[in-house]
């Protein structure tokens, strides 16, 4: 799927690098595409100090091999240059509940179907190229999430990236700052995006994400095959463990100037 980029970030298309117009956005459907995405996540996490080296040079988690997950990619001439994963709540739950178990369960108790956005990685593109690619891939991902009947997206992100997710996708806080073991104990905060809320409030980027429907053929699930599941199984990151840790007491003080506050979920509990 090729997506037009005019006015993606509220700018004229002339300010967007021409190099992003020849990209294809899709759900990974082959072993080669998944392998390329895993390599990209591995490299990105190593650069950021979030991952450990391994002999396969891929970051594969148990969730990647579940039918509840889809890998979204941006490709240029068959090369994967950007990826993110959507992990829908299922038998394995979602990765971030190893740290935000109570917070995720509060959402479940409201009857919400959840999907976690995870494993975002790119090829260190120029910042002017990164934003449109991120938004176009996200557009495919959020429309897929709604097509699959999800009510909300959740994500654990570094505190310094929280403003970005709020500004461009209108995510809100729902969990305090904690230490995240599967990214080498870096800090994280929990964010969520409730579709019913943005349908009512219509944030700035709403029309871009939902104004034009993506054809069904581009949204249909691409489950990993049994053969590919066995191929990737030995490559699962052995450091991917579920170890819940505590809150940072100084979180609220650090977030006093945040542009968005706790959601109605916390106001009601």
Provide an overview of this structure:
The protein has 269 residues and is α+β, with helices and mostly antiparallel strands. It has a single domain (13-237, 254-267), classed as Gcn5-related N-acetyltransferase (GNAT) (Aminopeptidase, 3-Layer(aba) Sandwich), CATH 3.40.630.30. The protein contains 10 helices and 7 strands. It has helices spanning 31-47, 101-109, 127-147, 162-169, 195-201, 206-210, 216-219, 226-232, 251-254, 264-267; strands at residues 24-27, 69-76, 79-88, 114-122, 152-157, 172-180, 186-194. A 7-stranded mixed beta sheet has the order 1-2-3-4-5-7-6. It is globular. 37% of the residues are buried. Residues 1-15 and 242-269 have low confidence and may be disordered.
Task: Please give the structural blueprint.
Blueprint: E1 24-27, H1 31-47, E2 69-76, E3 79-88, H2 101-109, E4 114-122, H3 127-147, E5 152-157, H4 162-169, E6 172-180, E7 186-194, H5 195-201, H6 206-210, H7 216-219, H8 226-232, H9 251-254, H10 264-267
Parallel strand pairs: 4-5
Antiparallel strand pairs: 1-2, 2-3, 3-4, 5-7, 6-7
Give the gist of this structure.
The protein has 269 residues and is α+β, with helices and mostly antiparallel strands.
């Amino acid at each position: 799927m090729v997506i037009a980029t005019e006015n993606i970030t509220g700018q004229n298309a002339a300010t967007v690098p021409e190099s992003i117009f020849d990209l294809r956005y899709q759900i990974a459907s082959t072993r080669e595409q998944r392998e390329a995405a895993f390599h990209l996540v591995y490299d990105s996490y190593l650069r950021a100090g979030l991952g450990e080296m391994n002999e396969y040079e891929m970051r594969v988690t148990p969730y990647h091999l579940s039918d509840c997950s889809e890998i979204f990619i941006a490709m240029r001439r068959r090369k994967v240059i950007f990826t993110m994963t959507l992990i829908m709540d299922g038998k394995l739950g979602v990765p971030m509940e190893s740290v935000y178990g109570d917070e995720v369960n509060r959402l479940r108790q409201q009857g919400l179907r959840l999907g976690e956005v995870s494993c975002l990685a790119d090829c260190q593109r120029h910042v002017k190229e990164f934003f449109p690619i991120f938004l176009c891939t996200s557009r495919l991902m959020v429309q897929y999430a709604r097509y699959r009947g999800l009510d909300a997206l959740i994500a654990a992100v570094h505190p310094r990236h929280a403003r970005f997710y709020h500004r461009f996708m209108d995510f809100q806080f729902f969990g305090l700052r904690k230490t995240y073991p599967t990214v080498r104990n870096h800090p994280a905060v929990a964010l969520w995006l409730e579709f019913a809320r943005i349908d009512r409030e219509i944030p700035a980027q709403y029309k871009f994400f939902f104004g034009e429907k993506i054809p069904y053929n581009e949204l249909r699930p691409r489950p990993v095959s049994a053969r590919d599941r066995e191929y990737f199984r030995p490559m699962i990151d052995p450091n991917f463990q579920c170890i819940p840790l505590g809150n940072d007491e100084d979180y609220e003080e650090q977030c006093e100037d945040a542009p968005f506050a706790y959601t109605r979920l916390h106001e009601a509990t």
